[in-house]
Amino acid sequence: MSDGCTHRDTIRSVTPSAKGCEDCLRIGSEWVHLRLCRACGHVGCCDDSPHRHATAHYRATHHPIIEGYDPPEGWGWCFVDETMVDLPDQTPQWGPIPRYV
């Protein structure tokens, strides 16, 4: 993992906002993989998903760090520094999470 992230101080222990991509569930859309915002707990879909809600959440909020979330994958990514991030912990999955695509 990289030590190139300058936003590690934004990582929080969070409660996931939904059992799936919060925004896809609202509009009835499918997703590929889930990402968890480690600043606020927003659950969004990855960039391989049709709506890319995790990236949209970053653009709207500037919350920089996400965690791979379905199943919990244990890795983090900083949008700002474009680097992998060592997370201090792994968020337990709030499931079961419905599967799509």
Q: Low-confidence segments, ≥5 residues, pLDDT <50? A: none
Number of helices: 2
* CATH hierarchy: architecture: 2-Layer Sandwich
What is the helix fraction of residues, given as a range? Answer: 10-25%
- Give the class-level CATH name: Alpha Beta
Please name the CATH topology.
Herpes Virus-1
Give the SSE string: HEEHEEE
Q: What is the fourth-level CATH superfamily? A: Zinc/RING finger domain, C3HC4 (zinc finger)
Kindly estimate the percentage of residues that lie in beta strands according to DSSP: 15-25%
How many separate structural domains? 1
Biggest pleated sheet: 5 strands, antiparallel
Name the strands of the widest sheet in spatial order. 2-1-3-4-5
What assembly state would you assign to the polypeptide chains in this entry? single chain
Distance between the termini: 29 Å
User: Structural class, judged by helices and strands?
Assistant: alpha+beta
